[in-house]
Amino acid sequence: MTESREQQSFDFDFDFDERRLAGRAILVAGGTGGLGSATVSLLAQEGASLVVGYRSHQERAEALQRFLTDRYGKNSVNLVQGDITAPQVRSDYVATADALSNGLYALVCFTGDPARVKFAEACDSDLEASLRENYTAPILLARESAAAMSRQEISGAIVLVSSMQAVSVFKSSLNYAGPKAALAHAARILAKDWGGPGGIRVNVVAPGVNRAGMALASIESGKYNHFVEKKIIPRFGRPEDVARVVRLLLEPDNYVTGQVITVDGGLTL
């Protein structure tokens, strides 16, 4: 005899705990720029233990630290300074974060360079500089971060930041897009190498035309107005759009790894 509708049991007790990043040590390299500071703000709101790396803009970094400390409390943000193309700087970033809480849980890497020298005019050193800034340094920082997580037996997360130019073809973008495409492909390899039970999730976020960082000046000049005027995209991106996707990929026990998520309002479609 089948059970009546009134007697059936349904399970709606889903696991949607909030603030699951509270107290977890997260390293955000390039965390004081437009996209980085939005992400840092979202993570600070949740109570994460943050180490924020910046290359040279100390005044901006300290202003962000003061703002978040006033809003969320003492020691919301720990600052580290230096260019991650230098091995010692990468080690300092990771060691600072690994000393917090129960060890380094996650890395988010926003660092990069627009590499605006056109390919037709680029020399060896221009291409090498772009490769170093946009691929080599982030990948080596990811390797060092993963090693720290493994030593502490932490099933952590790494989020690298690429570009929509790495996932779709844009004219005159080779010097920048080439290394960013390599970064995205390498991240998928690392997700396979470091994944599995108790492993490390590695994902990539590829922002589009965003009111922050490298694209802001182009937006303000009107260079990209036709994308909105022709209804290719509904609006220009905001830093918050990227921050929310990064936060999703940092979720503990996340079921997403080895993916490139393009945050571009549909432009690359």
- How far apart lie the N and C ends? 53 Å
CATH topology group: Rossmann fold
**Topology as a string of helices (H) and strands (E):** EHEHEHEHEHEHHHE
Superfamily at the CATH H level? NAD(P)-binding Rossmann-like Domain
Largest sheet: 7 strands, parallel
Percent helix among the residues?
40-55%
The overall pLDDT, averaged over residues, is 93
Strand order of the largest sheet: 3-2-1-4-5-6-7
Multimeric organization? single chain
Describe this structure in words.
There is one protein chain. With 269 residues, the chain is of the alpha/beta class. It has a single domain, classed as NAD(P)-binding Rossmann-like Domain (Rossmann fold), CATH 3.40.50. Helices cover 42% and strands 14% of the residues. It contains eight helices and seven strands; from the N terminus they run E-H-E-H-E-H-E-H-E-H-E-H-H-H-E. The chain has helices at residues 34-45, 58-72, 87-98, 124-151, 174-194, 213-220, 225-229, 239-250; strands at residues 25-29, 49-54, 77-81, 104-109, 157-161, 201-207, 260-263. Strands 3-2-1-4-5-6-7 form a seven-stranded parallel sheet, with helices on both faces. Helix 1 (34-45) packs across helix 8 (239-250). The termini are far apart. The mean pLDDT is 93.
